[in-house]
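Forwarding these from the shared drive since the link keeps breaking.
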Amino acid sequence: MELQNINDIDDATKHSRKELFRIGIALLFIVGIMLYTISQNTVDGSPSTLLIIAAMIGGYMAMNIGANDVANNVGPAVGSKALTMGGAILIAAIFEASGALVAGGDVVSTIKKGIIDPSGVMNADTFVWMMMAALLAGAIWLNIATALGAPVSTTHSIVGGVLGAGIAAGGMDIANWSKMGAIVASWVISPMLGGLIAAAFLYMIKRFITYRADMLGAARKMVPIFVAVMVWAFSTYLILKGLKKIWKVDFLTAGGIGLVIAIGLYFLVRPLVAKAAVKLANDKESVNSLFTIPLIFSAALLSFAHGANDVANAVGPLAAINEVITHGDVVSKAAIPLWVMMIGAIGIAIGLALYGPKLIKTVGSEITELNKMRAFCVAMAASITVIIASQLGLPVSSTHIAVGGIFGVGFLREYLKATYVEMVAEIKHHHESDNPEEVEDFLLAFRKASLNKKRGMLQELKMKSAKAHLTKKERKQLKRVYKTELVKRSHLYKIAAAWVITVPFSGLMAALLFFMIRGMMMP
């Protein structure tokens, strides 16, 4: 009996032990940053207390970026079972860190997105307090969002922090409200674009592959084309965004290079797909398996581009603080020392490993069911939306695009399923007085038919029958059944609410933190 009690206690405390382990590792990382900063960075021969605190906050922010934002890059691949959780974390950690260190750049903008005028904060101490408050507010909000299971934009988190702390430091006139208006617009633009593009690709895959009687024959022809489009999109995306800090080119050059790479990969992939298809059955599961390797590559490349771009959310304010403390000047661009970039890269990897699985599961499997084809469409939307938006000058969030893409494929599935059920109901309605076996034979032939043949079968059926079609009310009832099954509305409302309050919440918290820090630091 005593042994059973001990086992029960052990099971009950298992979760607490895991949580304590994660907290312990995170604290060790923060303490390590503190010790390194003390040993390597001095001002007038002694360590700068402000720089030490700022470096620790920067590490905390980096871990929260890894815990929340990286899930968007690998979540669909995990949800579709193209990658295991451990494999996804390993790939993302390696490529996030590589992107940050290889293509993160030598300088970073001190005021993200130009949302405030740094000349409005001429005092160096005030600027440092402002950036510390912004960084801490953004990190705290990301921590809260991760705990709630809501993927949010880290860029919007730090933007809100800088805006709130900037207004607290320099008044309302310091803010660039036109830039803020563009950021607010991105709350709608990003998910809508991502959702539409992901849904469009999924419909094309269904239309040209899975709706065909000979799925494998269609897959042998179309999968290499879809992979080539993916290669072009990711090559162009990486050149334009992932490598922009070390190699800046225009869209035509990037697109041209991407096209050459895509054509080369098409001729390489086509025989490989044909060879793989020989061993597969003529069904959706087999077609799904052909998208596994492209999905793994997309997760890696998205992680690399994210590390190159979004590490600035963690190290940008820290680099600005380091510049002011070291040289005493408030500047619009700050150099990024290697130790600052390492804090961002290592922090993202640690945050992903410790707390990333929660958001990866949310993005990958809790919003809607993802198979490999659907996840492939989400990855395509992530790259193509950024390319389109950058050419149109539209502000977009990679988080909003990815999550919008997931909702897009989910809502498309709802529409297609409801439409299919409506067609089946209409078939049964026209066959009400017929032999049940004949009805089942017709339905079996209907399910196996191509899209064009389905259309013809329905037309022929309607011509033979004078019975009324289903009423509008009956159609709506059928569709409503499927809407609740394929996309979780509770996640939609939770995520949308988190997106809307990200900037205001981070801004308010940053303002409060600024006044608190200023009160402690002023004599």
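-- next protein --
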Amino acid sequence: MSIYKFDRSFRNFIATAHDIIMAALSFLLAVYIRLGDELIADSFPYLFTGMIIFTAVSAIVFLYMRLYRGSWRYASMRDLSTIVKAVTLSILIFALLMFVFNRLSGLPRSVLFINWMVLLMLLGGPRFIYRALKDHTLNWNFTLKEVNKIPVLLIGAGDAAEQFIRNSQRNFDSPYEVVGLVDDDPTQKGRTIHRVNIYGDTQIIPTIIKKLSRKGQKPQKIIISDEDLSGPGMRNLVDIADGLGIPLARLPKLSEFKQGISEKINIRPIAVEDLLGRSQHVLDRKAMRELVEGKSVLITGAGGTIGGELTRQISSYNPSKLVIVELSEFNSYQIERELRASFPFLALNCVLGDVRDESHIENIFTKYKPELVFHAAAVKHVPIAEYNIEETILTNVFGSRNIAEACIKHKAQAMVMISTDKAVNPTNVMGASKRLAESYCQALGRQEKKEADHTTKFITVRFGNVLGSTGSVVPLFNEQLARGGPITVTDPEMTRYFMTVREAVELVLQASVLGRDMQDKQEYIFVLDMGQPMKILDLALQMIKLAGLKPYSDIDIVYTGLRPGEKLYEELFHLSENIVETSHKGIFLASPRQIDLETLKTSLSSLHEICKQRSSENALDILKKLVPEFTARA
């Protein structure tokens, strides 16, 4: 037997012995309390017989209800409820047995009620005293005063706050002392949690800080425990904390708390994604697993931000085979190393390849026969695309065409194409090329639906900016902050939709499930709910404040003007696209204008030849004809 098992068995034995001894003692005390000195005069001749019977009954009941299994260290109201049930059942069974044996002769009926109360105290008292001693919550005069703890103000008076306060109070090594609570629920004002006052809402935080300062309890940190705090609410708190010169942090979600009271709750700094304040959508993970599990999956652009996250999430759903296609040797090396470390039993195949190479794509499909294809490879950076028109069109349009046609030829079950909000009313080559790729895949989808033996479903998923993706604004701002500024913003009115990469990919997989199940809507485009757009200027200001710096003082902000192809705001839907809700709240459908496939193929052939000749002006002319809403900026 291991030391751990021996220790656990010994603890259970001690707890069981304690409860049985308390049962015997409670009976004697109950009789004595009722009869007093008359007990000595043998007024109750069945004293010891009754004690033995009651102790035996209690022992059987306690063992049956596993009373000894509850940890005294974490004694709770649930444990108290179990004790009440066990004691009540023991008294009832004992009374029934005594009635059968001797009609309760010589035993005052009140002894049963007294015994019930005494045994409750003898069983419950030691448990809660033990917990109080371990938690250091008895507040005896001889208790050493806690020193060197950081006073903090909590935002949110919910379960997470309660657990954090409890953890802080019972552990002397906890670095924090909660001196006040703030909650926007007006019914909470004036209440307390573990003797900590709830002062009011977030709008009066400066007043609360002053009040606590007068008491010698000025918070040195503001910690957010409210999981449901909105993006605007979070940004407001950043401004308030910045004005007070107090650092802002947040608790992990309650579901992330480690089990065990002795574990420390790790406070983390506010991240940029916290400023979005997006509510988490409920996902059908079972259906997502069924989509992937046991299937051969191919992902293009697997070394990029979206492609990389796709590989991670898809790998966790146990595909029979995962094929990742990536043009960058370094990106391929990075993602392969990560996947082999995280999923050692995954059948992984890494292929260096360019989606523009039609013959290579054909060879890949012939060799690996993918059933599901996720196409994330693209030229996505707007300024680079503007100066490399032919390369962008060849990758975004003809790379997508190569993948789509290979899917049909090799009878893949579905192709999921990752698109962008820049494809809506595009003002740049990147957006127009992605819109043309959308059109081609949707035209193929409609054609496939007409064929008797069609097999491939085409699912296009459109969403906005992903936080932290390569070349996006957040890493750029971080680099500029690290250099001491300035931060460059194109225009003070520029807005963008933002989403975390994890959420984006989760919704891509969810949309793929919806697309698989929608037999009559293959030509629709799935559009992710991006929430409310955010000003780039506001994002820059918040990031400066989160770094503990002052905008325009420590870090300057410089306006550079719109770059070629950029627009002030992005759109998720075209005016001519009908918006249809799906069964999932985070995903909508857009029905794009239909284009005849044969006509489109003819135009694409001309565009392909012109791009290979590197004729930018002619390529732009054809692109404008194929995407009429494309308005190229000067």
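The chain has three domains: 3-135, 150-270, 285-464+499-529+572-626. The chain has 19 helices and 22 strands.

- D.
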